[in-house]
Amino acid sequence: MLRFTLERLVGMVITMALVSVMVFIIMEIPPGDYADRYAFRKYSGTGVNVTQADIEAIRADLGLDKPMVLRYLDWIGGIVLRGDFGQAFAFETSVVKVIGDKGFLTLGILFATLLVTYMISIPVGIFAAVKRASAMDYGLTIFSYMGLALPNFLLALLMLYFASRWFGADIGGLFSEAYADAPWSLAKVWDLVKHLWLPAFVLAWSAVAYQIQTMRATMSDELNKLSVTAARARGVPEMKLLVKYPARLAINPVVSTIGFDVNRIFSELPIVAVVLGLTELGELLLKAYLDLDMYVAGAILLLLTFIIVFMNFVSDLLLAWLDPRIKLGA
Amino acid sequence: MLKVDNLTISFRTDEGLITPVQDVSFEVKAGRTLGIVGESGSGKSVSTKALMRLLPGNALVSPDARMAYVNKAGETVNVESLKPNSRALRQLRGGEIGMIFQEPMASFSPVYTIGNQMIEAIRLHRKASKKEAREIAIDMLDRVGISNASARVDQYPHELSGGMRQRAMIALALSAGPALLIADEPTTALDVTIQAQVLELMGDLQRDLGMGMIFITHDLGVIAQVADDVVVMYLGKIVERGATAEVIRNPRHPYTQGLLKAIPSLDTLHDRLSPVPGDIPSPTERPSGCPFHTRCGQMRAGQCDVVEPPEVQLGEGRAVRCWLDAEVSQSAKLEIPA
After folding, report:
1. The CATH number of domain A104-287 is 1.10.3720
2. Distance CA B323, CA B296 (A)
3. In chain B, what is the straight-line distance between the N-terminal and C-terminal CA atoms, in Å?
4. Do the Cβ atoms of B247 and B256 come closer than 8 Å?
5. In this structure, is residue B176 part of a structural domain?
6. What are phi and psi of B304, to 5 degrees?
7. pLDDT digits over B267-288, tens only?
8. Mean pLDDT value of segment A19-37
9. Is B3 part of a structural domain of the chain?
10. pLDDT, tens only, B109-152
11. What are the tens digits of pLDDT across the range A262-315?
12. Bridge partners of residue B11, in order along the sequence
């Protein structure tokens, strides 16, 4: 297992290195840079005549005049060696400060969503497979199709509407007003947890529907395996049998798509965040792009891709743990 | 130790109700081996699955079926009336009746070591600590002839060869200490040489442990080696039964005769094999009358294809279900059970 883990770890580092190059190139692609934008912002409407030399001076000041390769090395070196993601020009502070809490909140939403997705879809999928062709199974299938058909921002709107109409509850946002600007404390974390379930549920909605069907299909296959009958013929109690024999193998396609789920959550998060008034990174990413604030955009892109690559790494390890044949190379 | 009466099993399918086992009765005596012979689709595996209550959800067992099993404590267990998921049923499975299957690879879970699955079975049915269970497992692997058992116990099923796996499967079934072993074509998937070894091993173990055994196969040659008594099944019916030596020496049913002739022999190397003609009919299209009449060389039109023959008793435990014998016994004024 150690060898396998190390191999995957090396693979992850190489992937991240390549991803960082790609991210940097993507940051360079939009025409112009922050020097143009800064000059425009500072002097527009003031009647000052801005020359090309002025812009060059700003550019040199911001360190944007150096060749791309050098700037990349500076950037990545700062991140790896000092955890310094560079300057957030538009905010006139460091990227780390700008992203700060938003990064953690995004992570919080991500993990809460994944947790909700798997806590619901895995047991329910197993249940549907065991009760195959029952009314319950058909009901779940109908629910699944609804889940796939209903866009989650619409679901978010519906939930907001009914929550405020029936319970008068303020369920938008990630914090109650009392805690919004309070420093971090246990009470604030608990407040966050109380608010997190709704966006997690909304974001998990379609994945739950999808993964229930995946789980149901693979579990149905596994239930027909001779090894399951053989274990039953040895007197293994039914609940233990289901978890130990078919479910452990049936869970494989769900685990191997953790990376896809993370990816999907990141793409759906911004629009859900707008509806529910959440603090997260998507909005900031868009703003950074509009401002050509490249290091902010780069840091966010890098962070998101790093999480996806890391979750793929976790999924690889989980798969190897679930099925030892993977690490044994059989 | 096990008496099965009037066992009829049907399955609800999309093509309607099919009945692969009809009115089957047999008995297994302690320490003896009953062979069940038949082609695929004759209902031999399904009958034994019913004994372990392993039939799928769409299976129906006739209400008058009786499966009386005398357990190790000497109590009679009525298998047909055990509740699903009950403790008594779980004890029966594995602890009282062990089962080994045709595909040793598929009957092990690929993601647990041999030892893990053995220790689980041992601890379900015997009072043993993890450490003791491991000792029992290693001892049992050693007993079935697996070399270096203390290392093999930590290996995964795919790390063993086919013959080794079947030995390990036998060890797994026996480690829980069953009094009756059901072997469902245990040697069919193996090479001939390994097949002989495994058969010998099973015979030895049965003698040592004093187990009863039900041995399912399509091969009468194998039955001749292992079974004391034999029942021959065709399309869900027992067509002939008796002591193995008697049935093989003097087969009465044309189907049994056909099966015996179909066994390749070195003595008759230059003759062509004589298979039983025709195919086994589909279970949805059961022939009327005697189920075998479509393939029988001695079929009498108007009788065999119209009326099903009764089971004719020919002596102690010896019986055949064929009009040829029914006629003989009738003319000799012998009693015909309905």
Report:
1. yes
2. 12
3. 26
4. yes
5. no
6. -60, -35
7. 766 667 777 788 888 877 888 8
8. 83
9. no
10. 999 999 999 999 999 999 999 999 999 999 999 988 899 999 99
11. 999 998 888 888 888 887 888 888 888 888 788 888 899 999 999 999 999 999
12. B18, B59
Question: CA-CA distance, A243 to B131, in Å (whole number)?
Answer: 24
What pLDDT is stored for residue B186 in this prediction? 87
Element at B36 (helix H, strand E): strand B33-37
Dig out the tokens for A84 from the structure. 């310094």
Contact present, B81 and B107 (Cβ < 8 Å): no
Structural domain includes residue B40: no
How many CB atoms are located within 10 Å of the residue B120 CB?
23
Going by C-alpha positions, the residue among B171, B159, B230, B219 that lies closest to residue B195 is B219
The Cα of A322 is separated from the nearest Cα of chain B by a number of Å equal to: 7
Give the pair of three-digit tokens for residue A263.
């990816």
Which residues of chain A lie closer than 8 angstroms to B103, CB-CB? 226
Domain for residue B229, yes or no? no
Determine, for residues A225 and B108 on separate chains, whether the beta-carbon distance falls below 8 Å: no
Determine the Cα angle at A203 with ends A202 and A205, to 5°: 65
**Which chain A residue has its CA at the smallest distance from B99's CA?**
A233
B93 membership: H or E segment, kind and range: none
| SS3 label, residue B144 | coil
Q: Which residue has the tokens 């998937």?
A: B189
Residue given tokens 């709704």 in the structure block: A198
* Residues forming a β-bridge with B13: B16
How far apart are the C-alpha atoms of A217 and A211, rounded to whole Å? Answer: 10
User: Which of A218, A227, A236, A244 is the mutation pick for testing B, counting most B CBs within 10 A?
Assistant: A227
- Mean of pLDDT values over A204-229: 92
- Segment A31-53, tens digit of pLDDT: 777 777 777 777 777 777 778 88
Per DSSP, what are the bridge partners of residue B7?
A: B24
Break chain A into its structural domains and give their ranges.
Answer: 104-287
Expressed as residue numbers, the domain containing B257 is 252-331
CA distance A62 to A35: 8
For chains A and B, CB pairs below 8 A equal 75
Q: Is A227 on the interface with B (CB under 8 A)?
A: yes
Handedness of CA A115, A120, A125, A127 (dihedral sign): positive
pLDDT of residue A270: 86
Inter-chain touch A235–B109, beta carbons under 8 Å = no
Q: Length of chain A in residues, anyone? A: 330
Residues on chain A touching B156 (C-beta within 8 angstroms) = 324-325, 328, 330
| Domains in chain B, number | 1
Q: Give pLDDT, residue B284.
A: 77
Q: Which of B109, B156, B170 is the best residue to mutate to test the A interface, defined by the most A CB atoms within 10 Å of its own CB? A: B109
Mutation choice for A interface testing from B111, B118, B155, B216 by most A CBs within 10 A: B111
- CA-based nearest residue to B128, from B198, B79, B175, B183: B175
Phi, psi values for residue B78, rounded to 5°: -90, 100
